[in-house]
Amino acid sequence: MTKSDMRLRDILLALVLLTRLPLPRLPDSAFARQAKAAWAYPLAGLAVALPACVLGALALAAGLPAGPAAGLVMTVQVLLTGAMHEDGLADVADGFWGGFTRERRLEIMKDSRIGAYGVLALVLILILRWSALTALIGAGGIWALAGVAALSRAPMAVLMARMPNARQTGLSQSVGRPAVGAALAAAVLGAACALLFAGAAGFAAIAATALAAAGMAAVARGKIGGQTGDVLGATQQLGETAALLALLMAL
C-alpha cells in the first residue's frame, strides 16, 4: 500500500466505525473507502486510549490508588467504543461454545441476548484487563496502554484481509475486504505505536498480540469457517489483554 492509497479521511472513517466519538458527518460516498481505511484502525485505538490515559494520570495525581484509576481508564475506553469489542467477545463465546453446528453458532452470535458463556468471557477478560492495568499503572506505565490499544486493533485489519466472511451480512461484510497492503500498513502502524509508548517492552506486546490473533483466527476457522464483526471484536479484546500481560512480564 503506497502513501497515495492513504487519505486523511480514512482516519475519520476508522473513527466512525470503531468509536463513539462526536465526529463530523461524512457524505455517503465516503463510506465506499471503508475497506481501504483499515490501515487507520490503530489510530482509532489511540483516539480511545489517550483520553483514558489522561484521566488515569489525573486521578493518580489527585491521590487515587492504581486500582480505581485503572477502573476509570477502562470505563472511558468502554464509553468511547460503545463496548462494541466487548459485545463481540460475548457473542463469540456464546456462539462458539453454545452451538454444535456452524449455522447454529452464527445464529447464536446474531442474537442480542447474552448467555452464560458470554457473561463468563466478559467477567474473566475484564478481571484480567483490570488487574494487568492496575499493575502496569502501579509500575508507572500508564501511557503504555495507548500503544497497546493501537496495537490490538491492527489484527482486525489482518483478519479481514486474510479470512473470508463467515456470513453474507453483518458489519464486517458491509465494510468489505481490505487489501493485503492496507492490513500490512495497519500492522506496521500498530507495532510502531507499541514501541513508541512502551519502548523495548513493546516487542513482547507485539508477540503476544500476534499469538492471540492467530489463536482466535484458528478457532474461528474451525467453528464458523471465517470471520465476522464479532470475531474481530473478540480478537481486539484478547489481543489487548495478552499485550498488557506481556508488558507486565517484560517490565
SSE run? HHHHHHHHHHHH
| Number of H/I helices | 12
Radius of gyration: 17 Å
Poorly predicted runs of 5 or more residues: none
Structural class: mainly alpha
Tell me the span between the first and last alpha carbons: 34 Å
Question: How many extended strands?
Answer: 0
Mean pLDDT: 95
Could you say how many structural domains there are in total?
1
CA-based shape: globular
- Fraction in beta strands: under 5%
Please summarize the sheet with the most strands. Answer: none
Helix content: over 70%
Gist?
The chain is mostly helical.
Key phrases:
251 residues, mainly alpha, 12 helices, 0% strand
Characterize the structure shown:
- This protein is 72% helix and 0% strand.
- The protein is mainly α and 251 residues long.
- It has one domain (7-15, 38-250).
- α6 packs parallel to α12.
- The longest helix is centred in the middle third of the chain and has 23 residues, at 116-138.
- 48% of the residues are buried.
- The model has no long low-confidence stretch (mean pLDDT 95).
Any chance you could write out the topology, listing elements then pairs?
Layout (H helix, E strand, L loop, with lengths): L7 H11 L22 H21 L4 H16 L2 H15 L3 H9 L5 H23 L5 H8 L2 H9 L8 H5 L4 H19 L3 H23 L4 H22 L1
Helix pairs in contact: 1-2, 2-3, 2-7, 3-6, 4-5, 4-6, 4-12, 6-12, 7-10, 7-11, 7-12, 8-10, 8-12, 10-11, 11-12
